[in-house]
Amino acid sequence: MREAEVRALLLDPTTKTPVLLLKDRHSTKAMPIWIGEQEAMSIAIELQGHTFPRPLSHDLMKELLNTLGGNLERAVITSVKDDTYYASLVVRDAAGATRDIDARPSDAVALALRTQAPIFIEEAVFEKSAIESPFVEEEQFEEFVEKDLKLDEIRRLAAKDS
């Protein structure tokens, strides 16, 4: 498994769909996942450190886990089938048992960010979907995302490999 971090939220210029960019912590590769607008908003709110007077869905999920004595051990992007990504939440319950709960990747990432749980990508998924990025330094990454990331090209290459 590859440990990943959220590196950017982008907007696909063709489809106007949000794209979550997960970067492998130990390489220059990154993996884009097209996600829904509501989930993108939830992730963006957490990344920016904003809070609301009433809990949003992912805040509620965090509170439920805490109240019931559980905790999110990790979020894992587990597979990709027909251009749809799948994930699981690895949750430790109050009795100490670990359970895998099926989730959409965007929900898994949103909850992981709120609980400071690590995000992982299964090796087979990463190998199929990751792109080699021309950045080594943080500044190069930021420039790559802002100026050079061609989501249309990534989508075309992903479709070609399917």
TrEMBL record:
Transmembrane segments: none annotated. It comes from the Bacteria. It holds the Pfam family BFN_dom. This is BFN domain-containing protein. Residues 1-133 form the BFN domain. It comes from Candidatus Bipolaricaulis anaerobius. GO terms for molecular function: nuclease activity.
